[in-house]
Write a sequence for this structure.
């Protein structure tokens, strides 16, 4: 790093900080202003900020590693479930969360269930999601940051963490969700552009793309350029496990729930939530991945497999081919990716501590300004814990990549459907899922060694165990009261098995629910086809499989056109102006 590189870093830091300062006044108006932005987010901000949260410091290293280690099939580990859950959440779950008009997903517990147990478990789940999920997710991206930029800067991991975390804490604590969201938009654009600019520099220095492809084929053979499953590690049972994950991923705090749901709750209306998630799907699945297909292929042409840890491949490319000024931009982009993820996760985690614990149980009558300052203190506490966990526990990044993205949520996945589609699910089934999910997933994946076995074994063991546990516990305990179920149903209007509740509705209202269900199922199928076609097209183009590319282009184009026409006829795009 030369003086010019440090100057670039300084400019980036000042810009990120200024955005948080700009939104300080709006964030200080109260709990809703600080944690859900006064329900004012437009669709484009939801799309950009959500993909920015998904694009953490590990993304550059992880996506490059996946291509380098697994060829063009490597990204299908996350593409398969994401191409399914993202359109499902856009069509169905995004509007559910916005309709409920709540501040956190822990608050959902008292809306969906009733009685003293629901009130107690709301507090328990707030602790669980903040000190469990939020801390673990922040620790994970912290681990990636030290692997990616530490070698470039020549810093120890603790120095990298301290620099990045301090800046993130300041602007997130000041600006709340709005400060985080609009900082994330700037950070995502910087991250993508910095890596895109890096690509032609390396290609030119290596003698052109044709020469790079020739080297890869010589080193790894034609199998490296296989574009779509099955093949390699993607056996039949592995594909089944990934598809099941996608169908139920709306229950994941790293997917359709948690900080993603927080953005939906902050939307101007349910239609902004839906369109924002659809926009997020395209950005997440295609736009942010393209630079790292190039970089993964380039790495495979110049670095022998096994010569260096996979998580350090991106940093090694920067060290070898970066130059003064560009290196500063790339490192700034990596810090931006880290901070865009951690800023949302800090705000999301602290929302549980304040909205569901502190304001509700400890200081019930304090001023809104007091709660905002309490939120800032909670943000600091969660970040410190995450940095400790990230420094001490997060090792072996490929195993952690699969754990965070695929395994950690396997046990609780059935809740995605059962909460909204089955009236009989009660608070005890919810408790059984959340109490056992995270610790059991960690024990099976790491201490019991399932991270060293075929992926499907650990995933299906947890997934099937989750179904059995939730359903058995629910059926052995009393159902929720009728008035609680009716209140939730009228607020959310979910489809599914609600006969005990819907029999009290009028005939026309029941027909409307059925029409909405059939429409949603058809649009979900179109959305999945579009997302699958888009990612398969991306991989096929990099594989230079031109006929397959034309087929996938047709699939993506036709399904997208039908999908958009249906939403236009339903008035969703018109409703964005309301």
């Amino acid at each position: 790093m030369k003086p010019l590189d440090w100057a670039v870093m300084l400019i980036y830091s000042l810009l990120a900080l200024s955005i948080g300062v700009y939104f300080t006044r709006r964030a200080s108006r109260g709990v809703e202003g600080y944690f859900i932005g006064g329900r004012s987010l437009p669709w484009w901000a939801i799309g950009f900020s959500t993909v920015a949260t998904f694009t953490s410091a590990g993304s550059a290293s992880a996506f490059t590693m996946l291509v380098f280690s697994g060829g063009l099939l490597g990204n299908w580990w996350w593409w398969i479930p994401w191409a399914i859950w993202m359109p499902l959440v856009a069509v169905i779950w995004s509007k559910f969360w916005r309709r409920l008009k709540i501040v956190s997903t822990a608050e959902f517990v008292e809306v969906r269930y009733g009685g003293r147990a629901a009130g107690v478990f709301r507090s328990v789940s707030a602790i669980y999601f903040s000190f469990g999920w939020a801390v673990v997710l922040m620790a994970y991206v912290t681990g990636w940051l030290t692997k990616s930029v530490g070698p470039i800067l020549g810093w120890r991991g603790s120095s990298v963490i301290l620099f990045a975390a301090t800046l993130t804490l300041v602007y997130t604590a000041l600006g709340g969700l709005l400060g985080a969201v609009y900082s994330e938009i700037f950070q995502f654009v910087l991250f993508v552009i910095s890596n895109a600019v890096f690509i032609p520099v390396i290609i030119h220095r290596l003698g052109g793309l044709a020469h790079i492809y020739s080297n890869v084929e010589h080193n790894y053979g034609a199998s490296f350029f296989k574009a779509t499953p099955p093949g390699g590690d993607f056996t039949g049972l592995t594909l089944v496990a990934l598809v099941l994950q996608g169908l139920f991923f709306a229950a994941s705090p790293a997917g359709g729930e948690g900080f993603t749901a927080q953005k939906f709750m902050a939307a101007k209306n349910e239609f902004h939530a839906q369109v924002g998630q659809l926009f997020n799907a395209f950005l997440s699945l295609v736009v942010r991945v393209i630079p790292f297909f190039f970089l993964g292929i380039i790495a495979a042409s110049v670095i022998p497999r096994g010569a260096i840890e996979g998580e350090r491949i991106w940093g090694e490319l920067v060290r070898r081919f970066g130059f003064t000024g560009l290196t500063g931009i790339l490192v700034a982009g990596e810090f931006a990716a880290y901070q865009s993820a951690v800023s949302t996760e800090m705000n999301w985690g602290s929302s549980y501590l304040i909205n569901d614990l502190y304001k509700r149980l400890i200081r019930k009558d304090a001023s809104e300004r007091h709660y905002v300052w309490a939120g800032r203190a909670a943000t600091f506490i969660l970040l410190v814990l995450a940095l400790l966990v990230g420094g001490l526990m997060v090792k072996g990044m490929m195993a952690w990549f699969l754990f965070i993205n695929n395994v950690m949520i396997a046990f609780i996945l059935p809740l995605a459907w059962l909460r909204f589609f089955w009236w009989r699910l009660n608070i005890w089934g919810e408790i059984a899922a959340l109490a056992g999910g995270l610790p059991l997933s960690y024990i099976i994946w790491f201490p019991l060694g399932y991270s060293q076995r075929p992926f499907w074994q650990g995933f299906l063991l947890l997934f099937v165990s989750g179904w059995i546990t939730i359903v058995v516990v629910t059926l052995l305990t009393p159902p929720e009261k009728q008035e609680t179920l009716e209140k939730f149903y009228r607020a959310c209007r979910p489809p599914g098995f609600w006969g005990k509740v819907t029999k009290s509705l009028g005939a026309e209202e029941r027909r409307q629910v059925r029409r909405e269900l059939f429409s949603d199922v058809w649009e979900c199928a179109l959305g999945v086809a579009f997302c699958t076609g888009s990612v398969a097209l991306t991989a096929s183009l990099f594989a230079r499989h031109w006929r397959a590319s034309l087929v996938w282009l047709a699939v993506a184009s036709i399904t997208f056109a039908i999908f958009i026409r249906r939403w236009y006829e339903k008035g969703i795009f018109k409703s964005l102006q309301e």
